[in-house]
Amino acid sequence: MGLFDRVSRVVRSNLNAAVSSAEDPEKILDQAIIDMQEDLVQLRQAVATAIASQKRVQQQYMQAQSEADNWQRRAQLALQKGDENLAREALNRKKVQAETATALKTQFDQQSATVDTLKRNLIALEGKISEAKTKKDMLKARAQAAKANEQLQRTVGNLGTSTAMSAFERMEEKVMQMEARSQAAAELAGADLESQFAQLEAGGDVDAELAAMKAQLLGGSAADQAQLPSETAAPKDASVDAELEALKRQLDQL
């Protein structure tokens, strides 16, 4: 392979890659419709030109045929009048017009076939353009959706490395640290209060226990005093009472 061929292939491949990357489906679709419309206009003009030529050949054929018929009548008239030379001349003119008419008829038939083909192609192209117009909007919508999805995926993919996302994540971490410090400070403050109240509650328990013991002691003494008469009391006996009275009198006499 020569150097020129290799360079040519590289250049063409680069050009094709550049053209492919520069192609916008929406713009290309619009341009394709415009190009097809231009082709349709040109085909219509070609059909109109072919029809006009067909009409002109038809008129020329009909005129040549009419001239041939006219010379035929003149030849008959000259022969009836006994002028064979004039009749022969008329027949020569008739022959020329008849040959012309035959050639024109062949050309007319050919042009009629060409016009029919052009008309069929015109109808087919009109149908394709109508179908292309219908598909164009659908393809443009699909292209827009594909581009939007591609942009979304690219944006999502870049979120992890973008400066804005990094800043957002740093601020989120900072807020979490601030919340942790605030919670720790609150727990420490709550721990001091709890310890103070615990001390107060501990002292209160001692006082309450001391008061309970005092109340128990006081209650026990009162109970003992209340129980003494009942415990020392004995059933009354007449002899005992008499002896007690005698003892009292002896003591009074002393």
TrEMBL record:
Write out the entry's keywords from A to Z: Coiled coil
The answer to whether the entry has keyword Coiled coil is: yes
Q: Which residues form a coiled coil?
A: 54-81, 115-188
Superkingdom is Bacteria
Q: Which Pfam families match?
A: PspA_IM30 (PF04012)
Give the UniProt family note: Belongs to the PspA/Vipp/IM30 family.
What's the name of the protein?
Answer: PspA/IM30 family protein
State the species of origin: Thermocoleostomius sinensis A174
